[in-house]
Amino acid sequence: MTRCRCKSNNVAHWAAKLVGGLAPGVGLLLMPKCPLCLAAYLALLTGVTLSASAATTLYYGVAGALAALLCVTAVSCVWSIRRRPRCSDYNSPFEILPKPPQE
Prior knowledge:
The protein is built from 3 helices and no strands. The protein has a domain of 61 residues. By secondary structure, it is mainly alpha-helical. The longest helix is centred in the middle third of the chain and has 31 residues. α1 runs antiparallel to α3. Keywords: Membrane, Transmembrane, Transmembrane helix.
């Protein structure tokens, strides 16, 4: 008997996809609500100070990049589900026995 090779059981592969999908959303959730708070956090953590206009530009740039990454991740997820190969030799992707011949 042969196993269906349509599905990958590699745990590291699935863990990397999960982290890659969650990272932009978590980044958006953890971002401060105002650009000046972002500048204050940056100053506290790194010692780099920013003006209000630079902080605003950085804030909207980072938020836009994270939102775009979230959209790309969602589209990639939908495409991978739609393009997933089907196991035509098996009743279910979890079964190892072939389908009985149909008459």
